[in-house]
């Protein structure tokens, strides 16, 4: 089994130049950062609105065809159905703010509503159109409606979704199509419906690949725009956005949010004695070490030159000693002369410090970092002014 997994990684994953984590992030939405989810949400909402606006106009226009091809009650109900569908599309297209607290849930809901309109239209049209009495022209138009679920599956391809999300959106659409196939009392027979079902599965597969490649493209663009080119940590601007959002989420859920301010000790002397490149290298090593220590949902921000801010959601003050223990074990790398690089750290936590906004939280962490400097460097100051030395015991 391990051999098979290694072969898959070596021959299938490696050539795509994706790490296992990145691949996991394209298969399921669980590994996406708050920032990435926010960006994906705004792209999805913008596309739902654009397509809905288009359909809000096109769907009622097609009523002309219904009126020309069908007669009496059939035409009347079809036109009514169209107006209903156009109403839903117009409501989706209506300008709206992207939710500040739950943008991704909003995007998923809007997408689901938009995707369900065509299959529902198809199911309702089956009830309205009496298949037994159709002329050739009417049958042709009625058959066009049976393609609606398939069109929806293909339409999923334009959204930056993960494979799992496409699968979850496709299941109800394929379900509706199957209900349609058997709605006249017919059995679900492979010789009659197999080709249509196969085609739908193929469309789903194509959408999965397209959605994943769009997600990957979007993520690499967003990553480039949000991160510092030297260290790969978030820039101060994107870090502030993440902090604002994470603070809002934590105060809504009543969970703690901690921030840790890191300032390297005597960093200037590295530049002065060993050159700027050695200084740059030390910063990269620091970020690499911090990454090893931080959890998946934590965010690391380059706040200024050699100052970094770690945003630590759901980390109560009581867990700080464990966090510092992990930091101490990973270390911050070495100076060019071989001595360990040290840092002064100030930590603040929203509940323990009673901080009413994220700015206060950062200010407290900053003040504590200076307190750690004044106290002799290579130490952390925690909420309650608790000073914890970081030096490895000799
Ligand atoms: N190599 C390199 N140096 C940087 C970068 N950004 C800021 N610096 C340098 O970081 C140094 C920070 O110096 P100080 O603020 O005096 O701090 P320090 O020497 O670490 O002293 P303490 O903080 O008091 O322990 C300055 O010399 C900056 O030029 C960078 O991207 N690369």
UniProtKB/TrEMBL annotation:
Keyword Membrane among UniProt keywords: yes
UniProt catalytic activity: 2 GTP = 3',3'-c-di-GMP + 2 diphosphate
First-level EC class: transferase
EC annotation from Swiss-Prot or TrEMBL: 2.7.7.65
Coiled-coil regions listed in the entry: none
Signal peptide interval: none
Residue span(s) of domain GGDEF: 255-385
Keyword annotations of the record: Membrane, Transmembrane, Transmembrane helix
Xref: InterPro entries: Diguanylate_Cyclase (IPR050469), GGDEF_dom (IPR000160), Nucleotide_cyclase (IPR029787), Rev_trsase/Diguanyl_cyclase (IPR043128)
GO molecular function: diguanylate cyclase activity
This protein's GO CC annotations: plasma membrane
NCBIfam families assigned to the protein according to its UniProt record, in alphabetical order: GGDEF (TIGR00254)
Designated name of the protein: diguanylate cyclase
The organism of origin for this protein: Pseudothauera nasutitermitis
